[in-house]
Amino acid sequence: MRDIKFDVAIIIINYNSSEFTQKCIQSVLENTTGTISYEIIVVDNASKNKDYEVLKNYISELKNTNISLYRSRINTGFGGGNMYGMQFANANYYLFLNNDTLLIKDPIKICYDFMEKTEDAALCGPQIFNEYHKKEVSFDHFTSIGREIFGKKMLEFIFPGTKPNRRKQYTMPLSVDYVNGSFMFFRAMDFDSVGGFDTTIFLYFEESDICYRLKKKNRKTYFIPSASYLHYQGMSIQKAAWNIRTKIELKTSMFYVIRKNYGYLHYQILRMFFILRYGLVSIVKPKYFKLFHRILIGLPMGKSLKQEQRILP
């Protein structure tokens, strides 16, 4: 068994957004107490050479031996990039932190202290504020047939004990289904016990999937309202990329997770519902026909954006 060197390993993915990554690293350095030890592992997910070189030079100039940069020759997405980075981690906790975030008043220490005293916690996540310093929804309910057909508000109305109101203001830690993927503070032992993120998924719903698997092992996820961070919503995915292809990828991941965790019957019922829904929508908005067609053929993972990635020379 290896000796654990750090309390926390902070893993950050960069993809053609080195400016945000630099600010994120600086935010960690400026807003993390010296009473816990940590390392920062940056994974460049096959960015363009210019972006990678900018980031490489920045980290080199910091002259901080606890900050390391690793470059992947292929963009493996959110789960794959984080799984690549965690292989270099040597800590009791893993923090998977989006590069388009800025810490507010030492949330890492708050999460660390909470995890140290909460034995049934597998992971936790803080309150999110957007770039305008307004509170955002910071946790959600598991991806399921009920959520997609009846909606989140209906689940909260029917099951207030297990599906808490996402928009309510809380003051105490709260057990939830899953926290936002932009800041996920895991107990390394729990993360490792379920095999980490499912790398079949390229983007979206990775956090719902892993928290569901942890819940099946009686390990809990908590929302910590006393900790907070700023998240530039959607900056890690180019604004221009929010087109129909992105929506198709989101639905592809969603259906994969539902079939994986709930079975074939749930998958087919939801697929029939969406065939009807997007069949009608595509009549009014023809741009949705591509999404309708993809649902019609079963949203195969073989057509995920993951299959379009190219290996860097």
What does this entry show, briefly?
The protein has 313 residues and is of the alpha/beta class.
Q: What is the strand and helix layout of this fold?
A:
Elements: E1 6-14, H1 18-30, E2 38-45, H2 49-62, E3 67-72, H3 77-86, E4 91-97, E5 101-104, H4 107-117, E6 121-129, E7 135-136, E8 139-140, H5 145-150, H6 152-158, E9 174-176, E10 178-179, E11 183-187, H7 188-193, H8 206-216, E12 220-231, H9 244-262, H10 264-284, H11 289-296
Parallel strand pairs: 1-2, 1-4, 2-3, 6-12
Antiparallel strand pairs: 4-11, 5-12, 6-7, 6-11, 8-10, 9-12
Helix pairs in contact: 1-2, 9-10, 9-11, 10-11
Please describe what this structure looks like:
- The model is unreliable at 236-241 (pLDDT under 50).
- This protein has helices spanning 18-30, 49-62, 77-86, 107-117, 145-150, 152-158, 188-193, 206-216, 244-262, 264-284, 289-296; strands spanning 6-14, 38-45, 67-72, 91-97, 101-104, 121-129, 135-136, 139-140, 174-176, 178-179, 183-187, 220-231.
- Helix 1 runs parallel beside helix 2.
- It is globular, with a radius of gyration of 20 Å.
- It has 2 domains: 6-231, Spore Coat Polysaccharide Biosynthesis Protein SpsA, Chain A; 242-308, no CATH class.
- The chain is an alpha/beta fold and 313 residues long.
